[in-house]
Amino acid sequence: MALNASQPAQAQASTEALHAALPAMVRAGLSLLNANGLHFAPIRHHSPACALALRTMIAELRPAAVLIEGPDDFDALLPVLLDERTRPPVAILSQNLREVPDDEEEQATPGLQSAFFPFCDYSPEWVALQAGRQAGAQLAFIDLPWRARGADECKAEDDVEEARSLMTERYLAHSAWLRTLAARSGCRDQDELWDHLFELRPAAQLRDWRALFADIFSYCAMARADYEEAVLEAEGSLPRERHMAAHIRQWRAKTNGPIVIVAGGFHTSALQAMLAAAALEAKPRRRAAASANAKTNQGGNWLIRYSFDRLDALNGYASGMPAPAYYQRVWNSAIATDDGPHLQQVAADALARLARESRELNLAQTISTADVQAALLQACRLATLRGHAGPGRQDLLDAVLSCFVKGAIDEGNLGLAGDIRRVLGGSLLGDVPPGAAAPPLLDDALRLARRMGVRLDDSQPRSMRLDIYRKERHRERSRFMHLLRYLDVGLARWQSGPDFLNGTRMELLIEEWDVAWTPVVEARLIELAPQGSSLAGIALARLRGEEASLAAEGKARSASQAVVLLTRACLIGLHERLPVLLDTLASHLDEDASPHSIIVCGHRLLALWRAREPLGMQEHPQLRALLLRVWPTALYLLPRLAEIKPEEEAAAIASLLSLRAFHHALRALLDDPLPGETADWPARLQAMAERADAAPGVGSACAALLFLDGHWSEAELSAMLASRFGPGASAGDAVRALHGLLSAAPELLLTQARLREDVNAILAGWDDATFIRYLPDLRQTFAQLKPQETAQLAATLADANTPGLPLAVDWHGASEQDMLAGAALQAALVESLARDGLSAWGGMP
Questions:
Q1: What is the pLDDT of residues 88-125, one digit of tens each?
Q2: Torsions phi, psi for 693 (to 5 deg)
Q3: How far is Cα 575 from Cα 565, in angstroms, rounded to an integer?
Q4: Using the 8-state DSSP alphabet, how is residue 806 labeled?
Q5: pLDDT per residue over 473-490, tens digit each?
Q6: So where are the chain's domains?
């Protein structure tokens, strides 16, 4: 493998070292292959080629034992793995509950370290189990347990972790040698290179397991040459390999007959070197993961159902082959006969299915039979050009892009890329025997679902009507449904009922749900399993995460957001969290400086107060005290609404009106008077209305509210508005003031003649340029009137400006842009006539 002259000398030296080392590695591997009865099968996870070769290898050798790279505490699951009712894809979910310090101030759900060990029909590990049982071999896993290595591998993480794979292949993906080999072979990535070198060999070469595994050994040795021993020691590879080597020595000592070792190709050369070394521990050693100053909770291993969409490397899975549905068809074709996979037939089936889906989905551009034939021919020719035994996955993808896509892949094809991924990736869901041990989270969900009357033996959706105001049993069911909805499990779909979070539809007394327990629900629960052992625990962690997110977004002291968390906790049944959330809200009411947030908080608390019985808040008198605190807090912050920028004025006016609505609603619910109710409210409004520097819209809205509530007379209202509309007022401020007035009380222009005259006078005093400039704002302002009110106001103003001349209204379908363009053209025409001394022609003096 010669490198370009431009490569650094260090890389060139490494290349020469690898050239010298690889033959020795291969010779060592081949010599150990039959040495002392140990037969190594270096594999890539989820590789059909490796699975076929391993199947042939075990059938030929009839080994006494088959040892598999995988945590050795998985041995307890061998009976369920070998159960005939277990149907891949399945996975072993390994969980380790994190340590919780003794001095923890608050009881919390421990975090979990979790990992998946998946199997599909063509996984070499699965084939090793099945073929080994048929050969009468003893079976065992030999790797370090997840609990023993998880603490070190995950010690940098403080939060609950996402599940990881125990079949990681990052070494191959990150190998500079393999990237160079891929580039020189004309392959775009490691997956295409692997297919090119191994999966697409002729059938006879796939059955030659000695040659195949020798080549895989060399391939993986190239990847290992990129890593230093110190790196492999630190990230855990060497400790795992020492553990596996010790297991192999033990099995060799107690077993007569051949032993097959199924391990990732990256580890095989190290295992052979360790077995050849003179000094090696005689027994596997487990590393302690517990701290002396912590209480340790044990996790566990469970066999769970898995699915192709989660197994697909293209969806982010850390290990193995992409496109599991495609390789499943390759595997099925290979084991159906002895002459290897029929790759052309597999490609034809995939193309036909893609075409059928395009017709079933009624896509704008369906795939015809001629398109399928052209793509199949293209794939076969590409395979021949590339030296493949038949069209592979990448040959198929290239043919599809060439023959089906006429422009950009998603341009005119309505998501063809997604269709291709769905066909090649699949969504097959496996199965495990009834009664098999399940992750605690799934057990918890099943127990609660049975208690709530959910049918678990039928996946058909059923309607559930819940009388949450009168029946406690129905409230419990409602909280369970909201809990699973919050966790996005997919069990229940909300159809109707009060929306407590947003305070809408509160007049409804019945909740309606569509409920169905399906395999998708179980799959989602299994996805959530790494986050905790109970639904309530995961929901509590997520609720705390929302609190932390608010802090990160600068909303840590937002009273309105605190009420949302409080309401959500009620909805999903986390009532043990309510005292903490109520205390948090109380502190936020003292610290929140946003009048808008305080007012929104008040309305949400009102909704909670009205629904305190179905939401389980009747035992918390603090709710009423918080409601009473909102009013003086909002009054104190109210002047800030007058100190806003023009672009914030509409929101400020809305907050002002919302506070008035809150006041009226609160008075209707409570018997005792509110603090500052008799004097502070009108005094605050008057001060804002009379402030010269107040936002014009906010000031006029305050004036309108004072008039509506009987605190001001019509004369006082007109006097204040004269300063906004009268001589000296800018046109922009006048429009903003008019907008505020109509936002607060649109009926005033219809009922108050003096006010209407003032508005008419200021508009009449504008020149054409000013009128055209502010016409869009005026249209938006008057849009707050109802159509009938607009017609009434127009008729009144027309009669005042052109007495005796009837107002004719004709609608020609002109848009706002048409009207503005027409007004601008009229102004330009008048200016042109004046410039030419022809003003009289336009009717001007």
A1: 989 888 877 655 444 444 444 455 567 788 999 999 99
A2: -95, 10
A3: 12
A4: P
A5: 999 999 999 999 999 998
A6: 29-99+117-169+228-279, 325-425, 440-533, 679-803, 813-845
